[in-house]
Each structure stands twice: as C-alpha cells, then as structure tokens.
Amino acid sequence: MDAKKSIEALQFFATGLTEGALVHKLQGQIFKSQGFSKFGQKYIDHFNEEMEWGEKFVERILDLIMAIAIRYFTKFGHSAKMAEVLTGAKAETVATPITEPVDVLYLGSGVLLGRISGDMADFIRTLTPDRVKRVVCFGSCAIIKSPVPQMRSLLQAQGIAVDERSFTCKGSMGPLHAGHPNKQDLDDLRKFVQTTL
Known about the structure:
The protein is an alpha/beta fold. The protein is built from 6 helices and 5 strands; from the N terminus they run ααβαββαβαβα.
C-alpha cells in the first residue's frame, strides 16, 4: 500500500475512533448522572482506551507525512502538562533549539505579569522560515485572554507562518482557576491538535 493510501486509511480509523470515544464519554457521564456510577465509569474507561488508540493512529500518520517539533516554556508546569499530551514528537523546553527543518512547530507558553517569558521571546528570535514552515501556538493564562497574540507577533516579525488556529485554556494562579489546565482542557487540546494536521 502506498503512503497516500496508508494515510487515508489511518485518518479514517482515527476519525472514527475519536468520534466513537466522544460518544462513549458522553454516555458515561449521562449514566453517572443517573446514578449508574460503575456503568458510567466503564464507558469513560472505554473512552480513554479509544483516545489512546486514536493518538497512536495520529502518531503513525505524522510519521508518514510530516516532521513535527514541540517546544514550550513553563514557569508553573502548565505548558509542560499541555505539551506532554501532544503527539508526533517529544515535547521539549525552549532550551532545546530547532536544529532540523520541521513542517509544524507546536509552541506553548503561559504568561507572567501579562507577558510571555524572555526565554520564549529569545527562542522565537532563533527561528527562521527555512527551518520552520508553520507554527501552531497553544498556552494557558489566568488573567489575560491568551499568550498567543504576543507569540504570534514575534513569530511574524521573524517571517514565520503562524497558523490562524490556536488553543488557550485557563491556567491556575493560586485559587484562581484552581486545577487548570484540567483533564477536560487537555482532552480539548488533543482534539484541537488533530484539526491542525
């Protein structure tokens, strides 16, 4: 089977698994809300299994079609937590330079005192369009709307193509948004990433 047909088959299975998994999660939550806790948990466990298989299909697709890198800066662990759920490459901090050309760079950051870190800004300044074809930004924040506009501005100044789509969720800051990014945020990030491939 040629690569194109392999990719199409894998995409078909990944889409089907993801759609089925989401239905099982919803059914599990409904069963739990109606007092059928054990039955509901079985459906939710099935959702988790299906999502793992979906991620494996996505990883294989990525192996076949594109070079991906994942970089993040984290002060409180939120961006690291988010980066670790992404598939297609090993998640590394911005201390690790991009040394080989990549088709897609997933770049994650939070904000501190309303700004992305100097380390993130310095990393972005090392990027070149011949090394990075496209960047997809993600991040978390507690007060401002998103760290993405700051990253986007720096990336565009470097001549790097930045995907219009991005992902931002709440990040805890003391009691504010405690527990975020949470499991739902991470599930939403996984789904978002699949739309950017």
